[in-house]
Amino acid sequence: MKKGVRVVLFLIKRIFKMNWRKMWKVAGEIKERSGHNRFWLLWDMTKCGLQYRAGYMDYKIAEMWNLNKEQRKTVITRGKSNEIVRRMNDKKYWHFFDDKTEFNETFKEWIPRKWLRIDRNTTPEALAAFLEGFDAVIGKPLEGSSGQGIQKYTAKDWAKGPKAFLHRLHMDEIGILEELVIQHPEMARMCPTSVNTCRIATLLGDKQQGIVYAFLRIGNGKVMDNVDCGGMAARIDLESGTLKTVGADKAGNRYEKHPITGTEIVGFTIPYWEEAKAMCIEASKKIPEMRFVAWDVAITADGPTFIEGNSFPSHAVPQFAAHYPDGIGILPEFEKFIDL
Fold it and tell me: Where are any strands of DSSP class E within 92-158?
């Protein structure tokens, strides 16, 4: 199917799936920040949808009302992101990343923690053996993203025995239990309530192969660091592993210091950065049919480890306006690897 036809089909699909009520609400939120009236914003959102395949959330997150035509071309909008994923990743191989137990098994050399699949074949005896010695574990749905459905369980939760706890896990739709990841003390200094992970995107492009971008995802008081759970992100300098931008969240807030710990964000350096990069580059070649993968990497006292890999990388974090003060988005970085 030709690219032009795909673009038209994408726009038609978006029109019919559009949440018009939410779009009206978002335009109202932006009105307060931009000074433009709501009808002008709705018209400009529509233009950006037609010209750049941008959804209304893309428009909000990238603050596209502030950008000129040339700057808008550089934003990785939903439509452009979907096109990159479609081109780079063979859907027959997504399961290695979408099923968390498959991911853990495939990339086990970089995942030393213990884990247990929870399904109808899991026995109370197997669960009891797994829990032995743990005061807390993390439970996750077998598939899913944005931190949805992830829960932390403590010994109180299995105090009534493994059979009762197994029933609860089934009710909570948990597909995998994992040993807790204990992050490096320096990472905990930024935010101790969540494991603050590096989102490192590798791209096996036609022009070159390697890391196309990296961000540190930072929690803001919750167990999860995801921006969809109230967390923030800051861009990582690929050479030094140092944060080179302020933190930013989906609401458009900017943080020079972490609001809870007071840790300076710009200039913070990720421990074991070279090892984290090397791990992602090596792992990216394991399933070569998956050419564009966003890896979530935790940094422990012993080095980096994978939390998960994303077969359909979110385009939200790489377009936060706060990370691009000159208005030039991240697409030029992609163009070093592939033709767009």
Answer: 115-117, 136-140, 151-154
Distances in whole angstroms, Cα of residue 13 to Cα of each of 9, 88, 323, 327? 6, 22, 30, 29
Q: Per the domain annotation, does 107 fall within a domain? A: no
Range of the domain at 298: 91-100+183-334
- Could you tell me the pTM of the whole model? 0.91
Q: What is the pLDDT of residues 189-238, one digit of tens each?
A: 999 989 999 999 999 999 999 999 999 999 987 666 567 767 899 999 99
* Helix (H/G/I), strand (E/B), else coil: 199: strand
Instruction: Answer yes or no: do 206 and 304 share one domain.
Output: yes
- Quick one: 12 and 151 in the same domain? no
Q: What is the pLDDT of residue 218?
A: 94
Count of domains observed in the chain:
3
How many other C-beta atoms are found inside a 10 Å radius of the C-beta of residue 48?
22
Contact 190, 268 (CB under 8 A): yes
No. of helices (H) and no. of strands (E), the chain: 13, 11
